Amino acid sequence: MHRNDYNNATGMRIWLSLLLGLPLAAAEGDELFEKQIRPVLAEKCFGCHSANLREPKAGLRLDTKAGLRSVNGKLLKAISYTDLHLRMPPAGKLSDDTIESFAAWLKLGALDPRVDDGGAGAVSKGIDLERGRGFWAFQPLRGGDAGIDQALAKARASKGLTAAARAGRREWLRRVTFDLTGLPPSTEEMDRFLKGEPYGAAVDRLLASPHYGERWARHWLDLVRYAETNGHEYDNNKLDAWRYRDYVIRAFNDDLRYDRFVQEHIAGDLLRDQRLSRDGKFFESPLATNFYWFGEVLNSATDSIKSKADTVDNQIDVIGKAFLGLTVACARCHDHKFDPIPTKDYYGLAGILHSTGMREVVIDSPAQAAAVRAAHVRAAPDTRNPGKTRIALRPGETMWEDFEDLAKNNWYASGEAFANGVRDGIVDSAGRGVSELVGSLTSKKFRMPNHYVHVRLAATKGDRSLGEREPVRLTLVADDFKSLHYLGTGKDEFEWVTYRMTLPYQRLCYFEIVDRSRTGAIAVDAIVFSEEKDPPPVENVEKADWREPASVAAVPESAFGMVAWDEAPGDTKLHIRGSHVNLGEDVPRHFLQVLSKQQAPLTGSGRVEMARWITGDARDLLARVWVNRVWKHHFGDGLARTTDNFGLTGERPVHRDLLDSLTARFVANGWSTKKLHREIVLSDAYKMSSRADAAMAKIDPRNEYLHHYPVRRLEAEAIRDAILFVSGGLNAEMYGPSVVPYISKYQDGRGKPRTGPLDGAGRRSLYVQVRRNFLTPLFLAFDYPLPISTIGARNQSTVPSQALMMMNNEFVLQQAALFAERMAGESDKTGAMYRRAFGREPSAQERNDAHAFLAGGGTLADFAHVLFNSAEFIYVQ
Amino acid sequence: MSSRRELLCRAANGFGGLALMQMLARGAAKNGMHHPAKAKAVIFLFMDGGPSQMDTFDPKPRLRADHGKKLPFTPPTTVFNISDQILGSPYSFRKHGQSGADVSDIFPHVAGCIDDICLIRSMVADHSEHTAANYFIHSGSGFQGRPSMGSWINYGLGSESDNLPGFIVLESGLVPPGGMDCFASGFLPASYQGTMFRKGEHPVADLVPPAGAAAAQQRKLALLSKMNKGVVERFGEVSEIEATIKNYELAFRMQSAVPELLDLSKESDATKELYGLNEKITEEFGRECLLARRLVERGVRFIELLTPARPGLDRWDQHAGLENGHRINAQSTDRPIAGLLEDLKSRGLLDSTLVVWGGEFGRTPCAQMPDTPGAASRIGRDHNPYGFTMWMAGGGVKPGMTYGATDEFGYFAIENKVHVHDLHATILHLLGIDHKRLTFRYSGRDMRLTDVHGNVIRDVLA
To answer: What is the C-alpha separation between A872 and B299, in angstroms, rounded?
Structure first.
């Protein structure tokens, strides 16, 4: 062993001290520090960890005594590169000699001769919450009751601006019909309006249309990164996501109070007064909570604690932006740099979300459940016999569940299938022997202790390729990410199914037993944890006679949903610099302090209290953000243009008093979104022409004072829906499981679904399944938002692929041909097609051009195709 | 004066449309965005699946010496997490060129170019799962839907091509896990998204009318032009509408530019041979490489080449059958890559074109054994983001250099670590972009390709 640095007397003394455990004299300690430690710190560490830096990495200042002392405990671990996540210096490992010097220095008491500056190792500037509350967004709604036009007129006058003339009735009806329903007005509707239908009556008619809910649900889905698959490698399905979509449509059509709508999102599973569906068959409120889980999911997370933290981060991002217009997620690694949101607040919310799980449950109303029960109790007595068996466990094996008592592993039963609990040591989804029964059973969470799990079950033959869509299965879910499906083969005997716990080993796991099939059933006898590859031997005391259960067709249908639940509520530790391996103090679950008066005591996860807080203490901001979003979808831009960011880096509203008075009326009107629409679209501002006066445009080029109504391009879905509407190919069917998207030969990759029909069965675009990895190219070309987080304002770009698709895409051509076919019988084809496509008569010139085109060899389908390509088709005045 | 970002944004979204964007972009491209550029274009040879460093460019004799023994330390969790048994490389390594770097025998032609190449043997990434790792190497984030490197670069520099997209992905049968989101423009405007060219006669969806509809196109366009004139009269002068109308012109320039690009008939036989177009095993990737050169010549800014499909192989992802699988993947790409480097060099394009080779991660030094004991040929390696090799050539990178090192097992990068963020920062730097100043305001933050990380690796700059 050579150590050149230790060939002096001090070196010898140090080694003697180490060997004999003798204390080191102060002077010798100082020398050790100055010669061996400080130069290394200066060379390798101060670059990132110095008090001279504005933002030292991890807030750590190693050029202070306190700073160095604060990391003594993990210094050796960091520099020896034994921990995967903590490796310093990051650019490369120190030499072995240097590491040994540090080890010696630490062992001898880590003497540091520098003057203690008294400062903490980690810098914390802190946030002045009281000052933060002075910012406009956190202030209460300001008084004043000026109407839209009054407020705008005053503001315009102050700038020397005047409002544009009134738009024609045709333009207004087309504008408002697209805005409220996402579709153009029909020829009949246009005629009725031109014949004198009052503006107010037209608005009431549009708000009462079921298409209204479809249109505004789609706007809402942008805010909650709605998707029906998990993305990543295999793009697995998110079951029942469509039920959430339908929930939102119904909420808009029923004009559900917005504050209640938000409360149901936060805690719909826990609210005491659960709303029932109109037909009384299922619970509406819990369906809203599905929004927590629309984020992407990794295929096989190797660091599932980090993945869970990322999921929670995405949830916080969406909650912050969608409801409150705040970029709360910016406070994950450090106090928010601009807004009064300390990191503590972030982890206060994180604790709530870490305490919230999702489960697959039956959401039948009590009446529906009773009807199911009443229908199946009349079934013939169940004569199936599971047989008496003895499972001979081998040393080291555990019978984790023998199904003698569901309380043992805290199984949660939902649906009538499992309502009867266990009998003869099995659990059986056929209840009293009826295959129509459906339901789910969810176990407690536990850490997977072994490398093999053997399950003894008897179930309808499953199809492994269906994965999570297999309707009859026992699934092991590990850390919410990796699912292993135990399926039956349809034998009339119990059989073992085995999986190796490659990834689940040592992770937080739970089981779910699911039967969604009216023709299938699953019975489970035992779950055994083992280190053996092969299942334990079974001694048959009595042979089983396990046939298909009976069928009672009269059993009513049940509904499933993905619903939140409180699981093992607890606080989360502060993640220093956002790292899940560098944990700080416990942070009690709480909400944003800047918007809180007093913290309510929490029950469970804290979601019930959070729902109360967000519509209570945070009410004014919640309402403002929503009113601004509604305004944005009517005028192209919000009164505050950064719809998802009401913080310091967002744009402040030019007309704050207008936003506030509009919001105050919205709240006073019982949070009715429909009344808000009515006020906006019946205003003079909304009735203005879209022709800008050049002189006005010079004074106000961004049109912040609304001196004219802005020309607007339709969104991707509205373009497709308008094509279907005009061609006559629109299928107005509402609700239900999504249509699989059309997959062209140009779309490829893992998880590719079998293609759906080219025209999406004529359904409106919001019923086309949102497959993360296979989003529809026509939508993407027109700035459909990727489902990553809240998008309150889509991009609007102009790219060649838009022109190419409108000209060459087979769907557009197909619909053009259909449009022509429908118009073939019309005597005035040009007139009829212009009225349908643009809601107006063609000019004489346009008639001439059309006739020349058709006379020159163009077909009616070609003509229809050109109409779809006209700028007038996708822009609204 | 508006900031460049605002101008570009507005240009992409509204008034003046593409012309302004291109004009600005050209002005910037000549000298780089923030400092003089070395490279004008990037060709990313994306080795999807994760080639093994210890079988390609990073020899580890210790693995052969300890073959079959257990690793002397506990490895980190991997995707399959089922082995700690050391696996020596089945291939031999030899020193090449004046630089004398060791290259595996499965890359004889690339080995011949080693003096033009800068090997980085100390790459580090953050994810050991394909999809997250693919997103990460492309966008600097393991999440779906963030802007890809090619999108960022086009956002910064614009395209020099009037009639081709600035970010083109060439594919021959395999889309990487994660799909098109590897090439997404994320929160940047859609104009920057990657366009995938598939092999075959019609590489781009909806580029040309389907059979039967082609004849009517001119007639339709003439009518459309008349109709749109009426729209302008009716709506007034609205910049967005103007851009939409002009957009049809660009679309039709693309219609003719693409067939011209794909027509290789004017390339000499010698060129075709250089790229391996006359051999079945190299024909597909050879064509991708030749097209890459043609795209560079046409001013396309970022070109990505994907690993060709090979029967029975899942990209470079050899969890099993490593020996045969890596050999075939190497054979399919070796000559075409060497051909591309030679061709770019002889045409004087290599200096201004940065070629980057590598996968989303490397592989483990230990064997992934088949579940049932079987032939040695079924043995493979698992994913390893902690230390792997990538290389760069041309575009202002030091030629004939080897940078960084892994430990003696090739598991962890230990010397001059280059994180993916650092690689991104370096690529942007070579294009004349300061990675800290190429930003886009999203979600209340000025977002970057390198997030809050990344250092330019000055040591590898020529």
So the answer is: 34
